[in-house]
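Field log, afternoon session.

UNIT: design team B
ACTIVITY: writing a sequence onto a fixed backbone
BACKBONE:
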């Protein structure tokens, strides 16, 4: 018997990446972080990370796709778009996920790992409103399962 609200998921065996982590920098707080690097092609990786904190390239699949693939054939598994492409609103403060919602309800993650259920309204939420440069703190995030 399946519980309501629980969807069976496939085991993740790899990732399709369009970027990675580059050189290390020091933040004003003194914390080290890595600059993001954008690729001009896709890279298929395993789910494991190497010593450089990047996902390890799946060389077998990359051999089949060619040196720098700009297109990758995929197959959508489900008939339901929401099952194939999971989306949510997400707010990060540095590397920490602070809030995750569906447009109606959200979970706010506090400093001491406490979770609080809050209203998620992208029209009224102060974190979803654009600043003077047009950027928002809360962004839509999506994960394609294929």
């Amino acid at each position: 018997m399946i519980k309501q609200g629980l969807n069976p998921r496939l085991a993740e065996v790899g990732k399709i990446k369009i970027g990675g982590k580059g050189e290390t920098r020091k933040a004003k707080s003194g914390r080290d972080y890595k600059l993001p690097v954008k690729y001009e092609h896709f890279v298929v990786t395993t789910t494991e990370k190497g010593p450089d904190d990047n996902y390890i390239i799946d060389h077998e699949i990359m051999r089949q796709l060619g040196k720098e693939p700009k297109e990758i054939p995929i197959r959508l598994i489900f008939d339901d778009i929401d099952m194939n492409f999971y989306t949510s609103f997400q707010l990060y403060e540095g590397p920490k996920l602070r809030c995750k919602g569906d447009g109606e309800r959200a979970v706010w993650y506090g400093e001491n790992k406490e979770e609080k259920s809050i209203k998620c309204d992208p029209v009224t939420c102060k974190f979803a409103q654009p600043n003077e440069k047009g950027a928002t703190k809360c962004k839509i995030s999506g994960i394609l399962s294929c």
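LOG NOTE: Residues 13-73 form one domain.
NEXT ACTIVITY: expression trials, pending approval
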